[in-house]
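Model: You mentioned two targets. I'll fold them one after the other.
Researcher: Yes, keep them separate.
Model: Target one:
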Amino acid sequence: MPNEPVVTVRGLKVSKFASQETLCFEATVLIDGVVAGVASNQGTGGANFYRPHTLQTRLTEIASTWPDVVVEDFVVGPGKTERFTYRPDADSVVDKAVQDLLAEKDLKRLLKSNVLLLDVDGDIVAMKPSRPPAGGISPSFIPAAIRTHRKEVVAALNALPFEEALRAFRDPAGYIKAQRAARPGSDQPEPSSVTRATGPRG
């Protein structure tokens, strides 16, 4: 079975002011690194626009291989929620690529001046040194941040390879679940090497 095509975006332009019910954006879409067209959304709750139109067809074919999306707490009325399932489409593929790029940019920005800790509750806590160095956060800042945090730390994102840190940043609960799955019989995720070495104190 061939590998699933990789869809990414570049040249992303976002208008926060115009983003009402959906994200208002425009971006170049690449499939396996090759420019395939442009996707955009007006931010008013409607579907994406695609240029050329054949781009939507290609993305729909990719989405057809994805599993159904399940929303456990879909709001259907005041104080009432239901489990809702829907099929991914072309918009799902592009929206994921856009969110991946935005998360990557946010993570890079935060890592420059913060120690990012993922704790056992699935919270990512940004701890900023009183005098962040101009050259960015060095590993020497991490032990003190872990000692200051009052909860057990699963990982310091600064100490992880960037792709792994991005997975933890985008889906903290999923990252912790994967760590637990790697340790059968344990309810606690494997702590990072930094956590093991210093341990949360106080």
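Model: Target two:
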Amino acid sequence: MPVAYNAGIGGNTTAAMLARLTTDVLAHSPTDVTIMGGTNDVGQGVPLATSLANLGAIMDGVRAAGAAAWLVTIPPRFDLPLVVETYNAALPALAAAHGARLIDVWPLLAGPGGLWLAGYAADGIHPDAVAATIIAGAIQGTLVGYFEVPLTGNVDNWNPPGLTTATTLFVTPTGDFSISGLAIQPAGTFRRIVNCSNLHAMTLRNYNSESAERNKFLLGADKSLSGFASADLVAGPMSQYWYSRAA
């Protein structure tokens, strides 16, 4: 039995994906389903509300079948970069509303003006081998290395369960709380912190005295994460400080 099954079909819209869900996806009894759809909707001028409704129905169907749903942002388009940005901006709330998690690959692929980074898409629409590898890596890294954790108050030297092994921490704050530092990991370690609440913000305090020196954030300024926002961090040289990692 394959570890992963690719049910993607080139040219499909979200409507076509929804129509094939039962026969092409759920028939394989998956435990996790990644859903990336909308590039063709955008190109064909499908109304955003229609695309979101289709994606919502797909996520509902996946979860009703007992699988976890993972919604993936779509890559850039050379001809409609701002439309793609608007489309992707609607996906975090959509995923949360349907009990899914978001994997945001667009920032890894897009440059100034929302266009493809150089060398990633020869035709300006379809990812080349390098970009496809980046997308696959982001998805795989999230699926095999994530952890869900609540945040129930302000914390110093935060060392949540799963920090040593999880690439992505999906955090659900129960109030507007702050984190003054994160237990340091080996130099170069990457961690993504995602705020999964649309009701509360959480703030990463820049160089705050409440945490040990090595666990502090060196971000230039406090970083506030509102609903569904994320922060990409990397452990500094000699396992000292957490820095922002640019996409």
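Researcher: Noted. Anything on target two?
Model: The mean pLDDT is 94.
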